Amino acid sequence: MKTTVVMAALAGLALSGAGLARAEAPEPVLETYSDIAAAAYADALATAGTLSGKIDALVEAPSDETLADARAAWIAARRPYQQTEVYRFGNALVDAWEGKVNAWPLDEGLIDYVDAGYGNESPENAFYTANVIANPTLKLGGRTIDASAITPALLAEELQEAGGIEANVATGYHAIEFLLWGQDVNGTGAGAGNRPATDFDPDNCTGGNCERRAAYLKAATDLLIDDLAEMAEAWTAGGAARADLAAKGPEGGLATILTGMGSLSYGELAGERIKLGLMLHDPEEEHDCFSDNTHMSHLDDVVGMRNVWLGTYSGFATGSVEGASLRDYVAEGDPALADEMTAKLDATLAAFEAMRARAETVEAYDQMIGEGNDEGNAVVQAGVDALVAQTRTIEKVVTALDLGAVAFEGSDSLDNPGVVFQ
């Protein structure tokens, strides 16, 4: 239900980009932006490596302890990755790659067994319950696929978006999440997925096909590491993503930064990831739906936007970054606008910290969006409102820098809500 909204130039600003006298060129801002990307993707790769080690330990000795360790490593690995999502939308290379690692929501019946309430078929997806873990031979789209060996190539080349259907997610963080937690069958009630460790134990197997389930988990993790290594390399000096950004020139580079901020803030996070699920009161629309980690993924998206505005990044594994910032560049010509943007980002962070606090002390995110939960709904809506408000100021920054028309992602949930219920 996404739309693309071209943000028109806003009237009434004190300064336009053409009239700004600056002592500094924007190139150092773009360098910091690239350095943050390099550090954050490197952190995502490093934490995925830690996750891989914990998954190896789980597969070698399945127990409640090794499963809990693997789950904790998955949650830790999400943090740096989510802070890179602000690099989407403006960077074509990132957008072309992103679906391999963070596509959602997924029809989990493609991968493994599901609860009876999931159903046996979907009119939109012929592969709804293909269950590759249980079936070493699959008939998909009139073809017979040899799935006797579960390998990264099988997942990436045969199963990911099988039949051209986006919900057939076979790779990335959420496929791994489903395998570690299993389905969350609690609706908007308390509780996350609760897969037992014995689902990976051939000697005490629950759920059937334990060796194949372990093989899928390891293959998906190996593939995630390969994919993250590709993007981490792309942002190093001389990498493809840096080269693409440089080729756009200074104004194009600034437009790229603001396109990512505006699109993530508005259509993606406020709209598709939050408002849509809130309108429908549907826990299937939450981002980390198996683990109940959604509040942290949303928070880190917000942190990622602040990172590129402030020119800072607090590293998780490979070090921090601090350099020339878009905030300071804007402040040279319009300090009031720079202060307004910073204040809006601060207000958004506060709204999502409140969501995090509620998730950690009162109820999970999927309960917050439940029908009839006025207090929880209000906390989530406050996050949406803050994101929309900060997007309006991002529009002002685009205009002040005289960058022309910049397209931000939209969402029917925000732009045409009546369509959502049709």
Shape: globular
Q: Provide the spatial order of strands within the biggest beta sheet.
A: 1-6
Helix content: 55-70%
Extended strand count? 6
**Which CATH architecture is right?**
Up-down Bundle
Write down the CATH class: Mainly Alpha
Query: What does the main sheet amount to?
Result: 2 strands, antiparallel
State the secondary-structure class.
Answer: mainly alpha
Q: Please give the domain count.
A: 1
Number of continuous helical runs: 14
The overall average pLDDT, rounded, is: 92
Under CATH, the topology can be stated as A middle domain of Talin 1
Beta-strand share of residues: 5-15%
N- to C-terminal separation? 12 Å
Order of helices and strands: EHHHEEHHHHHHEEHHHHEH
C-alpha Rg (nearest Å):
22 Å
Unreliable spans are: 3-21
